[in-house]
Amino acid sequence: MSTADRGQVLGTLAATVHALDPVDRVPLILTAGTEITDPAIAEQISNPDCWEGGPPTGPSPGKSSRKAAKASEDN
User: Fold this and answer.
1) What is the pTM of this model?
2) Which range marks the domain in which residue 10 is found?
Protein backbone atom coordinates (compact mmCIF):
# COMPACT_ATOMS: atom_id res chain seq x y z
CA MET A 1 0.00 0.00 0.00
CA SER A 2 1.41 3.38 -0.92
CA THR A 3 1.54 6.22 1.58
CA ALA A 4 -1.02 8.12 -0.54
CA ASP A 5 -3.65 5.43 0.21
CA ARG A 6 -3.65 6.00 3.97
CA GLY A 7 -5.19 9.43 4.60
CA GLN A 8 -4.39 13.11 5.04
CA VAL A 9 -1.00 14.31 3.83
CA LEU A 10 1.26 15.15 6.78
CA GLY A 11 4.12 16.49 4.69
CA THR A 12 6.10 16.12 1.49
CA LEU A 13 9.67 14.90 1.35
CA ALA A 14 12.41 17.18 0.06
CA ALA A 15 14.99 14.37 0.04
CA THR A 16 15.13 10.61 -0.35
CA VAL A 17 14.88 8.81 2.99
CA HIS A 18 14.98 5.24 4.28
CA ALA A 19 12.30 4.06 6.71
CA LEU A 20 10.69 0.82 7.88
CA ASP A 21 7.15 -0.09 6.91
CA PRO A 22 5.28 0.13 10.24
CA VAL A 23 3.25 -3.03 9.57
CA ASP A 24 5.54 -5.35 7.60
CA ARG A 25 8.82 -3.99 9.04
CA VAL A 26 10.44 -4.08 5.61
CA PRO A 27 12.81 -1.30 4.45
CA LEU A 28 11.26 1.46 2.36
CA ILE A 29 13.03 3.98 0.15
CA LEU A 30 10.91 7.11 -0.10
CA THR A 31 12.02 9.60 -2.74
CA ALA A 32 11.81 13.39 -2.77
CA GLY A 33 8.30 14.54 -3.62
CA THR A 34 6.60 11.64 -1.83
CA GLU A 35 3.60 12.76 0.23
CA ILE A 36 3.65 11.12 3.66
CA THR A 37 0.27 10.29 5.18
CA ASP A 38 1.20 7.69 7.80
CA PRO A 39 2.24 9.17 11.18
CA ALA A 40 4.28 6.02 11.95
CA ILE A 41 6.43 6.72 8.90
CA ALA A 42 6.58 10.47 9.52
CA GLU A 43 7.93 10.00 13.04
CA GLN A 44 10.85 7.95 11.66
CA ILE A 45 12.02 10.95 9.60
CA SER A 46 13.79 13.00 12.24
CA ASN A 47 15.92 15.27 10.04
CA PRO A 48 13.90 18.47 9.44
CA ASP A 49 15.84 19.13 6.23
CA CYS A 50 14.16 16.07 4.67
CA TRP A 51 10.77 17.83 4.65
CA GLU A 52 9.56 20.47 2.20
CA GLY A 53 8.71 23.50 4.33
CA GLY A 54 9.86 21.87 7.55
CA PRO A 55 8.69 18.79 9.43
CA PRO A 56 4.99 18.14 9.99
CA THR A 57 3.46 19.39 13.21
CA GLY A 58 2.30 16.91 15.80
CA PRO A 59 4.13 14.52 18.12
CA SER A 60 7.86 15.01 18.25
CA PRO A 61 9.65 12.80 15.73
CA GLY A 62 12.15 11.48 18.28
CA LYS A 63 10.35 8.64 20.07
CA SER A 64 7.61 6.60 18.52
CA SER A 65 4.27 6.51 20.31
CA ARG A 66 4.83 2.85 21.12
CA LYS A 67 8.25 3.56 22.67
CA ALA A 68 6.87 6.54 24.59
CA ALA A 69 4.03 4.40 25.96
CA LYS A 70 6.48 1.65 26.99
CA ALA A 71 8.70 4.20 28.75
CA SER A 72 5.75 5.55 30.74
CA GLU A 73 4.74 1.98 31.71
CA ASP A 74 8.26 1.32 33.02
CA ASN A 75 8.14 4.37 35.33
Assistant:
1) 0.67
2) 3-74
